[in-house]
Specification:
single chain; alpha+beta; 3 domains; six-stranded antiparallel sheet; four-stranded antiparallel sheet; 7 helices; 30% helix
Length: 322
C-alpha cells in the first residue's frame, strides 16, 4: 500500500473538512419543523484520516452510555469503505433550539439598547431554515409583537453581496452603530480633584509636567451612530529615543463593551493594537503631530500629520488579534 506524502495528506484533510462542513450546512439549511426522516448520515472520514487509530466502536459505545437517550447513534460505518455516522435528527434539532434561543436573547438585548427598531432582516445560511427562523420569530414576537420580519431572496448570499456593494460604493451605508467603545491612553494633565482616586500620577520629563498615565481618551462610544465620514483627530507629541537620536510616537488603541470609560485599566477594557510613527532627529523642529482616526468604514484607518508643516506621515499599526 502506497503511503501519502505530507502535502497529499494535508490536501486530503482539507478536502474532507470542506466536504464535512458542506454536509452540515446542507442539513442546517434544510431544517424544517415538519421533517419526516429520523436520521441523517454524515461522512466522517475526516476523523479517520486525521486520527488513524480511532476505535469508533468504543467511542460510540461510550457516547451512547452517557448521552441523552434520544441522541443515541445506532448506525455507523464499520469498515474502511464506509466512514459515515448516522446522527438522529433530534440531536440537530435540540442543538438548533439552544442556538436560536441564544440568538433571540441577543436580539432582544440589542432592541432594548437601540431605539425605534421596527423590523428584523434575516441573512446568512441559517436563514434558509424555516424551523430556525420560526423559533427566533416566536421568541421575539412574545415581547415585541409589532416587529416586522423580512427574509430576502437567497439570504445566504446577502452578506457577500452587501460586502461587494459596500466596497464599490461605501456611501450606500449612511451610518452604523458602534459595536464597542474605542479609545486610547490619554496622558491628561494631572488634576488632583479629577484623577486623585483612581488615576496614576507620573512626571512627564519631556513635557516637564505631571500627567495622569491611565486616562482613557474616547474616540467613539458603544451604540453611537457612526456616519461613513466619521473621523476623530487627536494631538500627540513624539518622544526622543535617547539610544539612536530618533523621535517616535506610540498610540495604544483600546476597546470596551461599556459605554462610559474613564481609565484604561478598568474592568472590561482590552488593548487591540498599537500605532507607531518614527521620524529622524532634526526632520521636525516642532514634535507636535495630529493623528486622524477614520472610524466610519470597516477598518480602523489612521493618518498622522505634522502640526506646523501639515506634512502627512506614515503610521504603522500592530494588531494584537482582538
Amino acid at each position: 500500500m502506497q503511503s501519502l506524502s505530507g502535502n497529499e495528506n494535508l490536501k486530503q484533510i482539507q478536502y474532507k473538512y470542506i466536504h464535512l462542513m458542506e454536509q452540515i450546512n446542507q442539513f442546517k439549511e434544510g431544517l424544517d419543523k415538519d421533517y419526516s426522516e429520523d436520521s441523517f448520515p454524515i461522512d466522517c472520514s475526516l476523523f479517520f484520516l486525521k486520527f488513524k487509530e480511532l476505535d469508533m466502536e468504543k467511542i460510540i459505545k461510550n457516547y451512547n452510555e452517557n448521552c441523552n437517550p434520544e441522541w443515541k447513534i445506532t448506525e455507523y460505518g464499520k469498515d474502511i469503505d464506509d466512514r459515515t455516522i448516522t446522527f438522529p435528527y433530534k440531536i440537530i434539532y435540540d442543538l438548533t433550539k439552544n442556538l436560536t434561543d441564544k440568538i433571540s436573547e441577543i436580539i432582544l438585548e440589542i432592541m432594548n439598547e437601540v431605539k425605534d427598531v421596527s423590523s428584523i432582516l434575516y441573512v446568512g445560511g441559517f436563514s434558509n431554515s424555516n424551523y430556525a427562523i420560526d423559533l427566533i420569530k416566536n421568541k421575539v414576537n412574545n415581547k415585541n409583537p409589532e416587529i416586522i420580519h423580512f427574509l430576502p431572496p437567497y439570504p445566504e448570499k446577502a452578506i457577500l453581496r452587501g460586502a461587494i456593494y459596500y466596497a464599490l460604493s461605501p456611501e450606500r451605508i449612511k451610518s452604523r452603530k458602534a459595536k464597542y467603545t474605542l479609545g486610547m491612553n490619554g496622558y491628561m494633565d494631572w488634576d488632583e480633584e479629577k484623577y486623585g482616586k483612581k488615576g496614576k500620577k507620573i512626571f512627564d520629563e519631556d513635557a516637564q509636567k505631571y500627567v495622569c498615565e491611565n486616562t482613557f481618551y474616547t474616540f467613539i462610544s458603544k451604540n453611537e451612530d457612526l456616519p461613513y465620514s466619521k473621523k476623530v483627530t487627536r494631538p500627540f507629541t513624539l518622544r526622543k529615543d535617547k539610544q539612536d537620536g530618533t523621535f517616535g510616537g506610540q498610540l495604544i488603541v483600546y476597546k470596551s463593551n461599556n459605554q462610559k470609560i474613564s481609565y484604561i485599566d478598568e474592568e472590561g477594557v482590552e488593548e487591540i493594537g498599537k500605532m507607531f510613527i518614527t521620524v529622524e532627529n532634526g526632520n521636525y523642529k516642532d514634535k507636535s503631530f495630529w493623528a486622524t482616526i477614520e472610524l466610519g468604514g470597516t477598518f480602523l484607518n489612521v493618518i498622522a500629520s505634522h502640526e506646523e508643516s501639515k506634512t502627512k506621515c506614515y503610521m504603522t499599526f500592530e494588531n494584537i488579534g482582538n
